[in-house]
Amino acid sequence: MIRLDGKQTSATLKREIAEQVEQLVKAGGKQPHLAAILVGNDGASETYVASKVRACKEVGFKSSLFRYETTVTEAELLSKIEDINSDRDIDGLIVQLPLPKHISEEKVTEKIDPSKDVDGFHPQNMGRLALGSPCFVSATPHGIMELIARYNIQTSGKKCVVIGRSNIVGRPMSILMSQKGIDTTVTLCHSRTQDLKEICLEADIIIAALGKVEFLKADMVKEGATVIDVGITRVPSDKTKSGWKLLGDVDFENVAPKCNFITPVPGGVGPMTIASLLFNTLKSAKKEVYNS
Ligand code: GUN
Asked: What is the pTM of this model?
């Protein structure tokens, strides 16, 4: 069994990005610049945004964090996004989700200029992804594809089961795993799927992205499978300083011995997500997706 080490792989990816930033700046270009909008003070969102800002610094990016109280209106937020859209110094913009209930995530996502949408959530980027055209691939799916490529995991003709159909992970993952060059046969499972265990037992690759702690059990996985765990649920713990620990969607202890490859939680998909956000921001700064 080989652990897919997201910590180490993301460090490699970040090193590659830092080298490119250095070259860009040496050649007279400007530093890539990522802007983040954070509404409220949800603990998990605070942690993610702080990690993103820290990662920018590590690779030589500029970052700007715009914080708002939960009482911010939708109109104020949309107006800020417009300002950032027209700010020529900013290459990428993310609005940390979830947003308070009175703000439409759909309206906010659609307001972001697709050429700065480094989260890849805008319908234009999602549409391009489905068509196989140049686009920003959302960070978690991109990070998973990098892990699969860098560990040389065989995909062509294999059976892939994706559990969870979210717009952020499951749906784009199912598109990426069936694209030309990857060539798996994909089954996208969700809360209404019947016979999930039987479907999983056929799979060469399982991507668990449903957000239920230790949902995927050993009796659902065939010998030699690759298991990718996207879950990151905070559960209370009296063994950590923070008072919580992270658990995945996979019962790691019992599933791992059956696998050829498996991602741990933490240290698997999570760090790859942040590195992929940086990757997209660099792509934006270099005008590699949209060239105006
Ligand atoms: N909330 C959970 N995951 C994400 C993400 O990848 N990007 C943003 N903007 N918000 C999130």
From this structure: 0.97
Mean pLDDT across the stretch 277-286? 98
Across residues 249-277, what is the average pLDDT? 98
Residues marked active site are found at 52, 96, 119
If pLDDT is split at 50, 70 and 90, which confidence band does 9 have?
very high
Task: Give me the chain's average pLDDT, please.
Answer: 97
Domains and CATH numbers, the chain: 29-114 (3.40.50.10860), 139-270 (3.40.50.720)
* pLDDT tens-digit map of 37-78: 999 999 999 999 999 999 999 999 999 999 999 999 999 999
Nearest CA to ligand 1 atom 9: 96
Q: What is the CA radius of gyration of the chain?
A: 19
Whether 39 contacts 100, CB under 8 Å: yes
Length of the chain: 292
- In short, whether 94's Cβ falls inside 6 Å of ligand 1 is yes
Please tell me the distance between residue 218's alpha carbon and the centre of ligand 1 in angstroms.
29
Distance (Å, whole) CA 252 – CA 265: 8
Compute, in angstroms, the gap from residue 97 CA to the centroid of ligand 1.
Answer: 5
Q: Is the CB of 97 under 6 A from ligand 1?
A: yes
Distance between CA atoms of residues 158 and 149, nearest Å: 15
Residue with tokens 């590659």: 16
User: Which pLDDT score, from 0 to 100, does residue 291 have?
Assistant: 83
The DSSP code for 219 is G
Ligand 1 centroid vs 5 CA: distance in angstroms? 21
Do residues 265 and 229 make contact, with C-beta atoms less than 8 angstroms apart?
yes
For 23, residues 6+ apart whose C-beta sits below 8 A from its C-beta are none
